[in-house]
Amino acid sequence: MRRVVVIGAGPAGMAAAREAAAHGVEVVLIDAAAKLGGQYHRQDALEPGDRFGSPVAPGSAEAALPEVEHVADATVWAIEPIDGGHRVHLRIGPADGPSRQGRAVEARAIVLATGAYDRALPFPGWDLPGVVTVGAAQALAKGQGVAVGDRVVVGGTGPFLLPAAVSLIRAGARVVEVAEANAAVTGWLTSPRGALAGWSKSGELARYAAALVRRRVPYRSRTAVVEAHGSEVVESVTLARLDARWTPIPGSERRVQADAVAVGFGFTPQSELALATRCRVSDGFVVVDAAQGTTAPGVFAAGELTGIGGADLAAAEGAVAGAAAAKYVGAAVEPPLRAMARVRSGRRFAAALAAAYPVRAGWHDWLRDDTIVCRCEEITKAALFRAVDDRDVGAARSLKLVSGVGLGLCQGRVCGQNAAELAGVDGTGFAKRPIASPVRLAELAEEEPIESPIDAEESGSPLGVEY
Amino acid sequence: MVRIDAADVVVIGAGIIGAACAEALSAAGLRVLVLDRGAPAGGTTAGGEGNVLVSDKAPGPELDLAVASRRRWPELLESLRGELGDELVQVEWEPKGGLVVATDEDAVGPLRILAEAQREAGVEAVDTTAEAARAMEPHLAEDVHAAVHYPEDAQLQPVLATTALLAAVRARGGEVRGGTEVHGLVLDAAGTVGGVRLGDGTVSCGAVVNACGPWAGHFSVTVGAPIEVLPRRGAVLVTAPLPPVVVRRKVYAADYAAAVATPHVDLQVSAVVESTATGAVLIGSSRQRVGFDESLEVEVLRRLARSAIRLFPVLAGVPVMRTYGGFRPYTPDHLPVIGEDPRFPGLWHASGHEGAGIGLAPATGRLVADLMCGRQPEVDPFRFRVDRPEVIAEVRT
Question: Region A298-317: what's the mean pLDDT?
Fold first, then answer.
C-alpha cells in the first residue's frame, strides 16, 4: 500500500490528509491532541491559540476523515532518514502518563503541518505568574471558559490580538487595554495594501474591533507593555508609547492595574521536525516550491511552518501538499489548480501581514540588565551579553553552552529566537532539536513495532513533484 | 579588536586543541592568530562531555600525556584566573572522580589487571568491591560485580574552557577570527611555510598549526600534506535536571576502554553516565565510523538508553531532553598526532585526540609550544610524531 504520513491535524494537516486520501493512498494522520482541528484544542502554554477562527468545527461531519487513520494523542519525537523515505517515531498517550505506547511508521512521503506557536518578547517582570501568551489565554478562554485574570492587558502585534481580547471578555475578564506595537490593525485592513490582500476574514476582524469598541476597550497603536509589576503575581503593568523602531518614548509611561498580561508578537514556526529532515529554512520558515515540496526529498510542508497566513491559507497549502505527496508515492494526480490559486492569493496576504506587523529591534531597549531572557534557566540579559562579549561566541550552539540560554525545559522554544536576536547570531541553531519532544529513557530503550510499506511500494517520482 | 596580518603562529581550528595550543604559544611570547572557518568552540568541542580522564587509558604514551594534562588543567586555570579574572575562568571544573564498574563476572579480571598496570604508571586506581561501589553511588545497579575508583578523573565544560583559553590569547595581543577559511599555505622556494592563504588575501607567519580536529585530515589534504585523521561519530543523551545525589561521579562500564580501542567501523556503545553542574545527566557513549553523516539514528539512542538503565535502573523514568553529537578525530593507531610535518617545515599538526581532546588539551598545547620553542618537553613526543606509518599513508579520500 502506498502511504503518506501527515504530522499535525490542524487546518493544513487535515486538508493534506483529505487530499492524499482522495487519491487513493493510505494516510496516517498524527496529532498531539485528542481530536482533529489543531491548535484549538491544545492547552499547552507553548502551543498557539485559535487566532483566525477555526475553519472546521472539530467533531463536525466536515472534520471527520473516515478514510484516514487518525493517530490521536501522539507525539512525534524523532524522524530518521531510511532508504527510500523516513521513519517516524511516535509515543501515543498522555505526555505525562506512565504508559505511552511506542510506534514507528515508515513512509516514502511525509507532510509536515506542525504549525507555529506564539512568540513572546521578554520585558521586566514577564516571568511573573499572570503573564501568558495570547494563544494560551485564548485556548484557556475558548477551551475551558476560564479567563487568565480579572483585569487583563493584551499586548503585542498583529490582528490576532483582537479575537484574543474578545475571547477574554467572553470568558468574563475585563480587558483593560489592547496595546498594538505597530500601526492600528483597523487602518491596515482598510488600506489599499490590506484590501488588496483580499483577506476573507476582514469582516470577522471588523466585528471583533466593533466588539471592543462596544465594551469601550482602549485599542492603542505604537504601544507596548514594557514592564509587569508585582511581588508574587502581576499586580500592575507599565505601558509605553513606542517610536517607529519600537524604542519606548521616555516620559510616555503609564502604569495601570492588571492581574494578567497576554502577549503575542507574531509566531515562531514549530520547525524541529523540518530541521531534522534537513529541510532548508529561511528566516525560520520552511522553504517550499509550488507543490509545497521542501528541499528534502519526499518531505512536504504546509501551513504556518512555511509562513504565517491563517487557517485558509494553511488549508489550501495542505491540499496542495497532500496531492503532491500522493503523487510522490505513485498516485495519478492532476495539479490541484484551485488550491494552488488559493495559496497564491493567501501568500499575498501573508506577505502583506508580515510587512505590516514586523517585530522591530527597539524591544531590546525595554529590557534591563537584570531582565530574564531565558525563563527556564533564569538567564538575564546581562549574563547573555557577558557570554557574547567576554567569550566571543558567534554561533547558537556555543552560545547555548556558555550562557545556558535554551538548555532548560523549553529547549529554546520560548527564548531561542529572542536570545539569537539579542546576541546577533543565527537562530536556527536554537530550533534544532533532534529529539523533538521529551521521551523517557525507558521509552527510548524500548523496541517499537515498525510498520514499513516502503519495499512494497511502486516507485514514485524520485526527483520530486513538479507542476 | 586587533586584526593581525602577520603572526608568529597561525593556529587553524578554534576548538579545545587549537585554543590550548594558541594559549601555550602565546604564553611563550609568540603572537598568535587563531582562525576557524565556523564559530570558535562550535564543532567537536561543543559536542563533547568535557572528560578529563586518566581511567580509560592503558599504560603507554597516551596515558603519559593524560597524566601530564590532568596535572596541568587546574594549574592552567589558576594561572588564567590571575590574568583574566574569576568569571571567565569559571569552566565548571569538577574533580569528581570516576568509577569504572564490571557488570558481568568476565569483566572483573581484565578490570583489575588494567588498574594494576595503571597504578604502576602512577595513576591512582583504587580496587573497590561491589558493596563499596554502591556506597559511593547508591543508585548503581544491583548486579555490579566489582569496580575501580579513579579519584583523579575530572570534568569541565568544554566550551567554557575553550573560550577562556581563547580569551587569554586575545589578552596577550593575539586574535581569534571565526568565519575564516584557510585555502592553502604560502611556501617559500625551499618548501618552508611562510603564511596562509585566506579568501581575502594572505597572512604571513612563521608556523602553522593544523588543529582542525576531525577535519584535520581534510585540511591536510587541502594543503598537500595528508595525514590519516578520520571522523568517528558519537552521540550523547541529556536528561532533565536531577538532584545531584542520583549520579555523583563519572560512572562507566568496564567495556568502555575496549570500545574506544576497537578499530571497528560498526556502532560501538558502552555506558558512560555522569552528572553535570546544571543537574542534567549526560549519557554516552557511542562510536561509529560513518564519515561526517549527522543524521539521527534512533538505534544509537536506544542502545545508549539501554546501557544507561543497565548501570542506573533509577534513570528509566527520567525524561531525555535532547541529544547532541559530534565527530571525534580518529587515527588508526588511536594516538594523537602532535608535531612538525617533516614534509613541510613550519607546518605542525595537533589532532587525532579522538574522544579525549578536552583532557589532553593542555599537555598537547604545551608540547607544541615546547617543541616549537626548542624547550625540553615534559612528555616524550616520539610516539605522537607525524611521520609514523599509521598517520602518513597514501592519500585517501
Answer: 94
SS3 sequence of chain B: CCCCCEEEEEEECCCHHHHHHHHHHHHCCCCEEEECCCCCCCCHHHHCCCEECCCCCCCCHHHHHHHHHHHHHHHHHHHHHHHHCCHHHCCCCECCCEEEEECCHHHHHHHHHHHHHHHHCCCCCEEEEHHHHHHHCCCCCCCCCEEEEECCCEECCHHHHHHHHHHHHHHCCCEEECCCCEEEEEECCCCCEEEEEECCEEEEEEEEEECCHHHHHHHHHHCCCCCCCEEEEEEEEEECCCCCCCCCCEEEECCHHHHHHCCCCCCEEEEEEEECCCCCEEEEEEEECECECCCCCHHHHHHHHHHHHHHCHHHHHCEEEEEEEEEEEECCCCCCEEEECCCCCCEEEEECCHHHHHHHHHHHHHHHHHHHCCCCCCCCCHHHCCCCCCCCCCCCC
- Predicted confidence at residue A242, as pLDDT, reads 97
The mean of the pLDDT values for chain A is: 87
pLDDT band at A407 (very low <50, low <70, confident <90, very high): confident
Q: Which residues of B touch A441 (CB under 8 A)?
A: 237, 239, 283, 305, 308-309, 315-320
CB contact under 8 A, B305 and A81: no
Q: Options 3.20.20.190, 3.40.50.2300, 3.40.50.300, 3.30.9.10; which CATH number does B98-151+230-330 get?
A: 3.30.9.10
Tell whether A1 lies on the interface with B, counting CB pairs under 8 A. Answer: no
Q: What is the mean pLDDT of chain B?
A: 93
Superfamily of domain B6-80+158-228+334-384: FAD/NAD(P)-binding domain (3.50.50.60)
More confident residue, B290 or B337: B337
| Count of CB pairs separated by less than 8 Å, A with B | 122
> Above 80 in pLDDT, residue A341?
yes
What's the whole-number mean pLDDT along residues B55-75?
A: 96
* Per-domain boundaries in chain B: 6-80+158-228+334-384, 98-151+230-330
B319 → chain A, closest CA residue:
A440
Contact call for A438 and B40, based on CB within 8 A? no
Q: What is the pLDDT of residue B394?
A: 53
CB–CB contact A441 B316 (8 Å): yes
| Chain A residues 46-85 within an 8 A CB cutoff of chain B | 78-81
Return the residue of B nearest to A89 by Cα: B298
The confidence band for A54, taking pLDDT boundaries of 50, 70 and 90, is very low
